[in-house]
Amino acid sequence: MHGTARKPIDALLLRLGQHDKLSDSERQVLQAAFGPPESLTRGQDLISEGDEPEGSTLILEGMSFRYRTLEDGRRQIVSLHIPGDFVDLHSFMLKRMDHSVGALSDCTISRVSHDTLRAVTEDYPHLTRLLWLMTLVDNAIVREWLVGIGRRSATERMAHLICELQLRLRAVERNGENGFELPVTQADLGDMLGLSLVHTNRVLRYLREQRLVLWEGQRVRVLDRPGLERLAGFDDTYLHRVRRPR
Questions:
Q1: Options 3.50.50.60, 3.60.130.10, 3.90.1170.20, 2.60.120.10; which CATH number does 10-148 get?
Q2: Among 135, 174, 200, 244, whose CB has the most other CB atoms within 10 angstroms?
């Protein structure tokens, strides 16, 4: 899609296409399923805990994050969503949201009604399996984050996050040769990785001093991908990027 205008759901088609080939009719039904694009600003909630949405939300551009906030105001970010990701496809089955989703950056989104999703599941079994697979991969990512918070060092966690995001963004054609846009503050990173602001700053300084990563404003430059993977102990199996019949 480089050099040509993107269609609204191209990132979704790219994400699904990395797992299996989509038929022309499946592409067409997806193109027709979504409502008009909507714009949100950074910090705005797409969905709030306790909501019972009547549709599911797709990220077209920008980033969002899934989070829980404790009674005392402490926040834990449990996943990030990039273009091509549904933030709440699971709400089609679960109905009531047990967490919130906020805009990490200015975002463009589109929604598909649950009635439309129900029709898709009845008429397009292969496409249904691919959408189901998306939720399974999302859960695999959350498990990997949980392992990181429980067992990896702070430096390993940061390196692992960068390795993961670079691959995910590459799959939907949203990164460059050696880096990608990541519109986060150090406080956001701390809430993702379970770190204090001071500790987050120390980890970023270490990665810079080791010539592994440079943070330039909102752009992350990966200087040494093999070294970063070794530091993180990164294994991309959990992203399930193998393309095969589903």
A1: 2.60.120.10
A2: 200
